[in-house]
């Protein structure tokens, strides 16, 4: 089962992807997480990517395409994967299709999380992430049991550097210009499924599970 979660920053892709990992046992592939790990490790790729990420711009296609191609070849992707935050441009989507074709597979479903753009600033400024295990929270909509402490591992919850209002505006603009066209792109391929991303987290998950059931 090869899935893509599509939606603007803050739509809930990461939240839903992690729940799907627990449910189906296939990996989440988040280009954002992979890039942030490279930034933390200070690899040459991370050093280059950081400038784009801090500005709220997209990292160049060839960099992220390379990351994903390499990741998809790993053994844990054999039975499927959940792409979260990739593809973000038509060029990335074309490259993904080509490399999947080479290994005789293809995307089964693209799940578009439809959200009210106005709600996203509040979602992103309130987003908190566990420094140790990467679990996601929201100060209002999905708070941890104890302030600033991860329910799952006790780690410290931190705010992403790019989740400040000025950078968020730029990211939403980049989404509108470069990523939103993928909704039509996948709709034309007949594999787009739309979900109401404004519903509560558990309801969104149920809708996605229904879609997945329909695939098999
Ligand atoms: P994305 O990966 O699409 O950028 P996230 O999954 O990180 O989005 O979600 C952004 C923020 O919104 C997080 O703080 C998350 O807890 C919260 N969130 C996710 N889904 C919902 C929802 N359906 N309703 C309210 N808040 C949500
Ligand atoms: P969000 O879901 O909140 O938009 P991500 O964690 O997916 O955040 O991405 C964070 C940043 O990493 C993006 O703003 C961008 O700079 C970079 N990035 C992640 N995925 C891609 C991608 N597929 N193409 C280009 N840049 C990416
Ligand atoms: Zn944790």
Descriptive account of the structure:
- This protein has a 5-stranded parallel beta sheet with strand order 2-3-1-4-8, with helices on both faces. A 3-stranded antiparallel beta sheet has the order 6-5-7.
- Helices cover 50% and strands 15% of the residues.
- The chain has 216 residues and is α/β, with parallel strands linked by helices.
- The mean pLDDT is 96.
- The protein contains 9 helices and 8 strands.
Q: Determine the fraction of residues in helical runs and give it as a percent range.
A: 40-55%
Low confidence ranges: none
Number of beta-strand segments: 8
User: Major beta sheet, specifics?
Assistant: 5 strands, parallel
Bound molecules: adenosine-5'-diphosphate, zinc ion
**What is the overall number of helices?**
9
What is the first-to-last residue Cα distance? 9 Å
Query: C-alpha Rg, in Å?
Result: 16 Å
Secondary structure: elements and pairs:
Elements: E1 2-6, H1 13-24, E2 28-30, H2 31-41, H3 44-55, H4 61-72, E3 81-84, H5 90-102, E4 109-114, H6 117-125, E5 127-130, E6 136-138, E7 157-158, H7 165-179, H8 181-188, E8 192-196, H9 201-215
Parallel strand pairs: 1-3, 1-4, 2-3, 4-8
Antiparallel strand pairs: 5-6, 5-7
Helix pairs in contact: 1-9, 2-3, 4-5, 6-7
Bound molecules: adenosine-5'-diphosphate (2 copies) and zinc ion.
Residues 7, 9-15, 123, 126-127, 136-138, 141-142, 200-201, 204 line the site of one adenosine-5'-diphosphate (ADP).
Question: In brief, what are we looking at here?
Answer:
The chain is α/β, with parallel strands linked by helices.
